[in-house]
Amino acid sequence: MYSIKELQSLISVEVNHEIELINSLEPKNLYEPVGYALSMGGKRLRPVMVLLSYNLFSESVEKVIPAAMAIEVFHNFTLLHDDMMDQAEMRRNSLSVYKKYNENVAILSGDAMSIMAYNYLLKCNTAQQYSMLRLFSKTALEVCEGQQYDMDFESRMDVSISEYLHMIKLKTAVLLAASLELGALAAGAPEKIATQLYDFGLNLGIAFQLQDDLLDVFAEQEKFGKKIGGDIESNKKTFLLLKAIELADPETKTIIQDWIQKKEFDAEMKVNTITEIYNSLGIKAITENYIREFYQTVLNIWEEMDLEKERKSELLEFAKMIMGRDH
User: Fold this and answer.
1) Taking a C-beta distance cutoff of 8 angstroms, is the pair 203, 169 a contact?
2) Domain span at 168
3) Which of 82, 40, 79, 89 is closest to 267 using CA atoms?
4) ∠ CA 318-322-323 to the nearest 5 degrees?
5) Which site among 20, 73, 134, 281 is 20 to 30 Å from 12 CA-CA?
6) pTM attached to this predicted model
């Protein structure tokens, strides 16, 4: 079995190689932003998940690298367009693509990335290629659905916690889930274990996004790589905000709603005011409890998975690594 660090190193080498190839393509103005988006770094969590799940059944992880690249390119495509829709100027301590270039470039280069992702997946020569393509297509559409729900929520004041959890399942969790199932499918894993790996990734993905909501408010700026309080500033209907609205007394709820409705405001004052409300309502602890519930489901699935504990130990280490992050 490969360690997580070894798999990260393996995919990083492959991504860097692909960046070189992409940067040599013409027209340069289409492909250079693609190379830039991929070069921003990150932990490459999703492609590592593809390799990790494949490695549960086979040592020949190089065979599934094209599928891992498909996931990484698709994920970065979603970030590229997401940043533009959210008007997020920074990504991983670098200018987001639309800020470095322009919005038209970000749209077209992002479109190219979504198509390139399928081309990578087609390079994965396996008997399960049809099933992999079907899962990938289903997941890609679900991510778009999740993004639309996220945008719809911006103009609504009545978003429920259950609606929010459904949205983040689609926008974030299904891609982590699909990453694990893709690796399992490529390796010809038993259907039951492939499904368990999907559910493992789904619950881990929800916990991951809830933690991201938490870090947006309570992380250290330098470690987080994005502007602290960005979700508050842009009126994102995060778990924290929805829970605060649910628990707040009428006076506090009015304060929250007033800040949401303001078109012009002092960003620092808005972030500080809403954060103080979160602190007064114990929102941080409540969110942490929800995260623990989803993570416990992850642990239960891992225990039930019919694989030797030593064989699946890196999968558990991966989950621990994600949930132990502070950025």
Assistant:
1) no
2) 4-323
3) 89
4) 115
5) 134
6) 0.93
